[in-house]
Amino acid sequence: MNEIQKTEKQGQVLTVAAPVQVGFNFFDPVQFDTMQRVCKLFASSELVPDMYKVTDKNPLEKAMANCMIAIEIAQRIGASPLMVMQNMVPIYGKPSWSSKFLVATVNTCGRFKPLKYRFTEKGMLGMVDYVEYTKVWVNGQNGRGYYKNEATTKQFDGRKMMDIECVAYTSAKGSDEVLESSPVSIRLAIQEGWFTKNGSKWQTMTKQMLMYRAASFWTSAYAPELSMGMRTVEEYQDIMDVDYQEVGAEVEAEKHDNANKVQIGVDLAQGNDKTTATMIDPETGEIKAVHDANAETPKEEAAQAPTPQPQPGF
Predict the structure, then answer these.
(1) Which DSSP state fits 293?
(2) What is the three-class DSSP state of 208?
């Protein structure tokens, strides 16, 4: 039952139903059946992204499962299910929010005043040291191995570039206390490797990326329940391929160790000069016999060869 709130206005008592957060119980058969019908409706719509829509590559069961998870997340943060579907992007299987959606969620949650941004020029950058990572293969035991990121220290020439710092700030409604994010600057973006990544938007949309990252920092510090611990799309793009990655699968090790390699054994047949080689196909493992194309055909094979028949007219 909804909680009842009473307020006085001009001498009258008004009874208002307070909003109650709606939850979804996966283990309630009635709720689950209702949710399935709702998910099927979304999965049949043209307005949802492909991962929620029924297509040849996305069957109904998979589309409905994605829709159900998106709706459950929407209920937990009090957002529109359609907005969640359109702004929750999977990056390598990990859900992430678009930065615009994260900012809109903060601005419309009713707890804070709209986010604002303060830019400060910190002087010329100068030469900035940063670390660049390159994947290298490391041989392990028993024929296994793994990839790791090898760090190389480099310098960024920023002598002609102004260092700009951005801070996102606002205050809770009914309070004058200013809540500020950690400062984000171009120098920080270079040192963290965000600015120098291939295809990075930091080089072409610098101020916009500063605001996105500052808003993400602010939300993580003051309202993590709104983002539910998810990073933004821009954050995943910045840190992608930087973390240490280990490959323990035998397939990866075998690809590295045996790629473009064959094992060849030479057997000289007695009585002739022909060389016969055995080759192991690296993909199938099949053993094949390879004969020297330049060697003469053995007498036994020549004897078995069909005798050419005379053609008519000759």
Answers:
(1) T
(2) helix
Strand (E) or helix (H) holding 5:
strand 4-9
Which class for 222: exposed (0-12), middle (13-18), buried (19 or more C-beta within 10 A)? Answer: middle
Residue type, 281: D
Q: How far is it, in rounded angstroms, from Cα 24 to Cα 21?
A: 10
Longest pairwise C-alpha distance within the chain: 126
pLDDT at 268: 39
Which pair of structure tokens corresponds to residue 78?
């009090």
Structure tokens of 95? 């859900």
Q: Quick one: three-class SS letters along 239-267?
A: HCCCCCCCCCCHHHHHHHHHCCCCCEEEE
Are 230 and 247 contacting, i.e. CB atoms less than 8 angstroms apart? Answer: no
Q: Are 200 and 194 in contact (CB under 8 A)?
A: yes
What per-residue confidence (pLDDT) applies to 191? 93
Please report the pLDDT score of residue 299 as a whole number: 45
What whole-number distance in Å separates Cα of residue 199 and Cα of residue 96? 19
Averaged pLDDT for residues 288-299: 47
Q: What is the pLDDT of residues 61-77, one digit of tens each?
A: 999 999 998 898 888 87
* Residue corresponding to tokens 């990252």: 213
How far apart CA 26 and CA 4 sit, in angstroms, is 28
Transcribe 117-152 into DSSP letters.
Answer: EEEEEEEEEEEEEEEEEEEEEEE-GGG-EEEEEEEE
Give tens-digit pLDDT for 125-159: 999 999 888 888 888 777 788 888 888 899 999 99
What six digits make up the tokens of 158? 């920023």
- 212-264 tens-digit pLDDT: 999 989 998 998 887 765 666 666 566 555 433 333 334 444 444 544 444 44
